[in-house]
Design brief:
heterodimer; A: 227 residues; alpha+beta; 60s Ribosomal Protein L30, Chain: A; Alpha-Beta Plaits; 2 domains; 6-stranded mixed beta sheet; 4-stranded antiparallel beta sheet; 11 strands; 33% strand; globular; B: 311 residues; mainly alpha; 2-methylcitrate dehydratase PrpD; 13 helices; 65% helix
Chain lengths: 227, 311
């Protein structure tokens, strides 16, 4: 039997992305991981700390992963020619940057934990760059997740209770939007919980604010496809 | 969804291979065919620009490569190359892209940055030398990308996962299928071209010197662009691979898994640990430390300056 993982990759993923060199896994993928942290934070960062899994810590400098991670975290796209200057640009913006090595356990070699602080909040993201610019974020603020950044996504932080998934799904259904995949996790029954909803088409501001105002929702973020 | 190359060949019988891939992608990823084509037109433009910039050369980040395209282009323009123009151009273009890549220039990953010279090298040289309509090249890119996406169902496309076969091997297979398509080949011939190209890269390890995408990556892209052209040539003449494409991909995954860690992009084996490779890695490390120290010094100086301004 063939060994398959049935990872569905599109033509544009394979013949792309358009990116700044030199490595799709070490430059483009890491820039997208930085960008995910920035988009979840949803404000300009003042401090970003990168914790690199040892294999990445050993190879990141030669591939410009430091420029790429910083570039993504200040909102640059993977094809932005300013990525080689990203650290200087971040310093001019007054952003404090730090790189540290940290053993992140049994994970892909190119895995990084990002702590990003803005004026009003902070976010922690753990993810891997698995090749060809493709990423897999598996932890957001301590919650297990399966975020790839390849479709519009709603991230919901809430207090675990019966009916929450149905209420969110209803609002999305009323918009005529199809849910592509849904992933939930929680720290403890009845305590902090997290929901990731990947949708096939963009969610309106009205729908987002309706979801935000649901009882027991502590925070909601809507992310477009990460370029 | 196309589940395998066997399935692809059945679905594509008497049809245009690019159309089959476009339809499948539209169903699976909800991106309309005309949007995919428009994006690929732009990416063809990025590839062309990259090839033009790369011809003038320059220094790479690790200072190990960067002028290969310029040297070969100069030899070509002064009539000093002995291979036919299509082959030489495929090499020049592949080297151009990889030179730009090594300087953090803008490129198209196809399927990765480290193997990003092969597909543009083959397709753009063919377009130019055989006077092919650029729109046909765009459709050739659909075929190349489609072949890559079917391989990606079973294999991680990265040197870290399975060595260089997973990057350069896959790129050569993608390009070979695209070239066979652009030359008017049947879907069967495109799949055979991919099979012949991929089969003959199996076992290729990823052992980059100093961990950089420079040695052997840059020159390897030029060589495997020609490898892909050769595979397409055989397939278009009716030569078939005895081992079917799906089984070749399966073999690639198995070989990748049995490769020692040191030969999967870690720079802990092969060329990376030769005497010269080790010496280069040491120099790169010292230079990086020096740059870090300089940056820290600069930060301290700026902080002191701010302090003295404040007082």
């Amino acid at each position: 039997m063939p060994i398959r993982h049935d990872r569905k990759v599109s033509i544009l993923d394979v013949m792309g992305p358009v990116m700044v060199g030199p490595s799709s896994s070490h430059t483009a993928g890491t820039a997208r991981l930085g960008r995910v942290a920035r988009e979840i934070l949803d404000e300009d960062p003042v401090e970003v700390r990168f914790f690199l899994h040892p294999p990445l810590a050993a190879t990141y400098r030669g591939h410009g992963s430091d420029f790429a991670l910083v570039g993504g975290s200040i909102g640059l796209n993977v094809d932005d020619p300013r990525i080689p200057e990203a650290i200087r640009i971040a310093e001019q913006m007054g952003v404090t940057i730090e790189f540290t090595e940290e053993d992140l356990g049994e994970v892909h070699p190119n895995t990084v934990r990002v702590e990003i602080h803005g004026p009003s909040r902070e976010v922690e993201v753990v993810g891997s760059s698995i090749g060809g610019g493709v990423i897999e974020v598996f932890k957001i603020d301590g919650f297990q997740t399966r975020f790839k950044g390849d479709s519009p996504t709603l991230l919901l932080f809430y207090r675990d209770r019966p009916g929450m998934i149905a209420e969110v799904a209803n609002i999305i259904a009323e918009e005529g939007i199809n849910i592509a995949s849904l992933y939930c996790s929680r720290k403890q029954r009845g305590k902090d919980a997290f929901m990731q909803v990947d949708v096939d088409s963009p969610l309106s501001r009205a729908a987002l604010s309706r979801i935000r105002s649901l009882e027991d929702v502590t925070d909601a973020r809507y992310l477009d496809r990460i370029p | 969804m196309i589940e395998s190359f066997k399935h692809l060949e059945e679905a594509a019988r008497d049809r245009d291979l690019a159309d089959v891939f476009l339809e499948s992608d539209e169903q699976e990823h909800a991106v309309p065919a005309d949007m995919i084509l428009e994006a690929l037109r732009k990416r063809r433009g990025v590839m062309r620009d990259c090839v033009e910039r790369g011809k003038s050369g320059g220094e790479s980040m690790g200072k190990l490569v960067g002028n290969e395209a310029r040297l070969l282009n100069e030899a070509f323009l002064s009539g000093k190359t002995f291979l036919d123009p299509l082959t030489v151009k495929a090499e020049i273009y592949a080297l151009s892209v990889m030179g730009e890549n090594s300087r953090m220039g803008v490129i198209v990953a196809a399927p990765t940055a480290g193997a990003g010279g092969i597909v543009p090298g083959m397709l753009l040289a063919l377009e130019e030398e055989r006077h092919i309509d650029p729109e046909k090249t765009v459709r050739g890119m659909v075929v190349a990308g489609g072949v890559g996406s079917v391989i990606a169902l079973s294999a991680n496309i990265s040197g870290a996962a399975g060595g260089c076969q997973n990057e350069v091997g896959v790129a050569a297979a993608m390009g070979a299928a695209g070239v066979a398509y652009m030359m008017g080949g049947t879907p069967h011939e495109s799949i055979q071209a991919a099979a012949i190209a991929l089969k003959n890269t199996l076992g290729l390890v990823c052992d980059p010197v100093g961990g950089l995408v420079e040695v052997p990556c840059v020159k390897r892209n030029a060589l495997f662009a020609v490898h892909g052209l050769t595979a397409a040539q055989l397939a278009l003449a009716g030569v078939d691979s005895i081992i079917p494409m799906d089984e070749i991909v399966e073999a690639m995954v198995r070989i990748g898994r049995s490769l020692p860690r040191g030969l999967r992009e870690t720079a802990e084996g092969g060329l990376a640990t030769t005497d010269t490779g080790t010496a280069i890695a040491l120099r790169l490390k010292e230079e990086a430390n020096q740059r870090r120290a300089e940056r820290a010094e600069e930060r301290e100086r700026v902080a002191l300056e701010r302090k003295s301004h404040a007082t």
